[in-house]
Amino acid sequence: MIPWRLTFSGVRDYPPTPLDLSGFDSHILITGPNGAGKSTISFCMGAVLYSSKVDAEGLRSRNLQANETWRAKITFLFKNDGLMKIDAPSFIEFTLYMVQEPGQPVKKEFLISKGDHIDQWEETVSYTSGDRYYNFTAYKKDLQYKYKIDPDLFYLIWYQQEVNQFAVMHPEERFRIFSEMHGIDKVQRDWEESMEKLKETEETLGSSELNVKRMKQELSMKKVALDRYVDNQNRLREGGELYIRSLLRLERHFYREKDRLLAIVQQLEAEMEEMGEEQALKISQKESAAESMNAINQEIVSKEEWMEETRKNIDHVETELRSILERMTELDKELRDITERKSKITRSEEEVKAALQKLRLEKEETNKAYDHVKTAIEEKKQTWRKTVEQIAELKEKVMSAEKQEAMHQERLREYKSSHMVQARMDALEQTIDENKESKRSMSQELRQLKEEQVLLEEGRDLSARQAESMKWFRSRQVKAYPLRELIEMTETAKLQDEQLLQAIKYTVFFNGVDVNPPNDLYHVPLMKLVPDRSVTELPDLRIRVREGLTEEEIPHAIKALWWVEQCFKGERISIQNGILIDSLGMRGPQEKERFILSAKALYVRKQEVHRMIGQLSQKLSWLEEQILADTRTLQELNSIVHQVRESEAFMTKQYERTAWRKKWKEELSNEETLRQEIERLESEIGVYTRLQYKHGVLEEQLLEEEQFYKELGKLKDKYEERNELDKQADAKREQKKKENDKSAKLEQEIELLDTKLKQTERKIRKMSDDLESIDMGLRSRKKQKVNCEHEKELAEGELVQIIKEVTDMKELMPDVYSLVLTDNSEGRVGSFQQWQNDRERGKVIWNQARMEDGIDPAAPANYETAKNEFDRLDSEFKRTSILLEQDKERAEQLRDKMETTINMRVLEIQQRFKTYLGHFQFEGDINWESYEDHKKRVHFKLYIKVRKEGHRGSMEDVSIKARGGKVGKGVSGGEESLSSLLFALALLQNIQTAPGFIVLDEFDSALDENRKSKVFDLYVHELGRKMIVLTPKSHEQSYMNRFSKAFVVHHDPIETRSKVIGIAKVEGV
């Protein structure tokens, strides 16, 4: 399978491009500068052959907008020829279609077309991701097994830097690629799988051993459960037998006890009947005596009630007699007092009545006069209080007005008038506005100077419009450069030399194609500048590329310097004496004249800016202080102007203050007159008050005398009442004597009845004793009967309980019951208490056995199951032990096989590698090692060791470098590349398949001309394949003659397009 043609369209910046790769042994060279798009061609080859190393979306054309649909097509034509010729037509073409709608994933379709003539296909097969049979997996398998051109499996395409990576690759990654290329990875996986299986078997064996131990322990536990179950069954049978036997004995005992108690109850009932008849006779006799005693008691009660009524009569007579005697004593005392008071009175009864009538008339007149004067005083006091309040109010107004008048006069003396204050305020406001405007302009100027100072400190000097442009480009994330940041004046230049560039030195260069400039400075797109040569200095203009630029900025500086040169060549545009002249007119300086391109000018400008910042800062500080002082004065005047206006208004109301003073004096005079009138009236009301007091005292004396004459008229009635009370007292004394005699007679009769009652009570007590004796006998026999009946009930209850327990035991343990029932030889042996004890003991043993926790009825079956499981696990453990030995033996065999294969392949590569290195005067060695990490994972490493012939010391791996960013250790870059290429060649030689081509991207980038030709010849000789080489370097003619065809890739940054130019070798030229 020989590559014959490659075409692609819609890929990155390329137009539809065909590449003629025809020729059986024609080697192809694809060259061009870095970044031109050479590697894209190798990516297209990998994409159409479904290489897993190529991301198809990376081939999208960058000229498309985000809302445009991307369509791409790649075809790779092969001629069915060479050592790997397959059973197919003469030509086979592999095609990849890619379509991506906006916002959608890429849709891909692979085609395989076959035919004996190019572009006249006899058969075409399509592979899509959704097809059931012809999908991408089927396409990959066809490439591997049918067409033998899988780029990843057969290492047909070595992408950029891939062929040079073996030297810097980690030894472990190097071994992985080595094992994949030689099929060792399968043997390695078999061994690793055997090791995993061995570990699994070891884990299974450990698990089986644990299971055997666990089952052995469980078996011992089941044996304990079985022993407990057997012991429980024995105790259950023994306890049940003892329990049933004692129950049967107790059953017979309680039957006999029941009959005995029934006979005793019948005998007690006969005795109780005889004693009942005797008791009835005694009760009859006692009832007769009780009736007699009740009659005596009733007579005694009647006598006592009569006697009690007599006592109450006596008490009533005594109370009435006592009341009569007390009233007689009071009357005697009153008669003595009235006689004594009559001797002290001087007026007669008529004189007393006349004096009382006269006094009442005088008292009425005095009260009327008193009320009139009092009302007049209240009215005067009310008027006086109002007058005092008005005086106080007027006084406050007058005093306040006098204080305010002094204050307002002082204010007007100081500020003259509100008009003058307002005029001064207007002047201050104007001054403040002017100062603020000056401050704003100075602040803006100071800010610009400080920004310029920051730029100058950074070595940059931008004008205002340049700064505007730079900010504009930054907001759009476009890289831009002022001219002075790309070029500078040479050391020999003078300041005046910069005037030649006055018209263009503020130009801004930006990394783009087209923009709308923010101002009228020159804005030059760097992508449209394509210099015809590389220029770093213009001696005539004394300018050069600025020193200290980065690698990214140097190409931009070269373009800018070339652009300046074009301005002075005078083709379409020219500069003469600092004036820019073109076909439309002339243009002078872009900014105010300044020197910005030399270091000396930068220093001078820096000093000037520093001085100007200091002066402006001082002026701004003075302005801020002046504005602050004027603002404070303005605020003070603003608060004062209202007060001045108030003072002017106050002084216009002088007539009000004069009226207040006059009114105040008048009210003071009225207050004095009212106060004198109130004093006069108060002295007058004092006279009436004293006269009222005298009238009251005289009235009290006259009323007492009037009352005495009334009591004196009642003295005759009291003498008559005194005689009547004396007669009543004698009658009550006689009545009391009769009642006492009656009470003594009743007491004698009651004593006789008491004697008779006591005799009857003694007779009744004797009868009661006899009845109590009979009753005690009855109660005794009743109690005996109740006890016997109770015992009989208990016996019957016990018998019922025993019968129930016997029935329960007969149902629960019928075999034991039958055994005890047949063995009845010891039916009467033992006592009742012994049978009870046997019953309880047997019941306890039987219940404990029956209710015992942890007794498993399935213990025998469980033990048998556990015994069988233990035997099974023990047998499995023994089988696993045998299997472990077999897995160990197999793993060891696979390890030996793997190590033998690795050693054999390494030895083959080593021999070739040493041979290849000998062509370049180098010695080399290839070896490998394996080790286990702490996680028991096996790692493999492959070492490539190189040294020059004749050098001593041990060889080290080519990937070893100095640590910590240091240099000086390890092989050189050229030796790394050489060892990688020769190691890759040795690997390719050991691949069993022999494809017809190989693609190498930048495989010679680190080789000199001599080694490059030797390595290429060695690859051609050893591989015998068609070589497709991609390289960015320029080459000697001898190296170029080794290729039949060459393609030059060129990229136009202005149009952002890449194109391929084909060059064919002509024999004899």
TrEMBL record:
Keywords associated with the record: Coiled coil
Ranges in coiled-coil conformation: 184-218, 258-459, 661-691
Domain of life per record: Bacteria
Location of the region described as Disordered in the Swiss-Prot/TrEMBL record: 723-744
Name of this protein: Chromosome segregation protein SMC
Taxonomic lineage from the root: Bacteria, Bacillati, Bacillota, Bacilli, Bacillales
